[in-house]
Amino acid sequence: VEYWYKKAGEGHAQAQYGISVCLQKGMGVEKNLGEATEWCEKAAEQGHALAQFNTGTFYHHGTGVKRDLPRAVGWYIKAAEQGEVRAANNLGVCYEKGIGVEEGVCLRKAVFWYRKAAELGNAPGQCNLGVCFQEGKGVERCDKVAVEWYIAAAKQGYAEAQWRLGRCFRRGEGVSVDVAQAIAWFEKGAAQEHARAIIELEELRKEPAAEMEHEVEATMAELPLSRTPDLSGAARIPPAHLETKT
Q1: Cα separations (Å) of 120 from 35, 46, 217, 230?
Q2: pTM tops 0.85
């Protein structure tokens, strides 16, 4: 840690970022969120993408610093422009909810940033983009394309996408009704303690017919999703002017 402090003091961006992480998590030093933010922002100002993203989250949540949503958005933009996918997804959330952005809610921009994150493999971004397609937020509604993005995120183990995908199979939205598939994906989400997946799984298990079908088709539950999903439907997103969920 002393070495990192020395290099950080000399203006080394990676060292400044490393010290910030240590201070944030209390690794080798006493935990100090205020100092963590200071070092992180120093690295961010030198163009360190991860530091820019972290600095954005600090200002977004008021971690070690006074909450400043416009400033958070500013750092997310800098990080996202360097390909930091989590920053791109967070920007999508900010534009969808009107958080820290001058123009307020702008769904077209939300879709733009969710798409950036999704195409780079970010599971939350893929799921959020799927929601936009399923609900017609900032893009023409298309359940089929929504399912394709849910599949991409669910295969990465993202519980929210697993629940949403299971619900699509249960309701026949974008895919044919398939109770066995619905149960299979609800089970995956429930295993991660996703509340809504647990509720819908319990509901289906109370239906005798559903249980019987699940037993018969359990070995086939994954077959329809074993291929790589066709994500070409993303091209249907209209050109955007710009664009944790956390």
Answers
A1: 32, 24, 34, 15
A2: no
Tokens of 38: 């200071």
pLDDT digits (tens, 9 = 90+) for 215-237: 545 544 444 443 334 433 333 33
Largest CA distance in the chain: 68
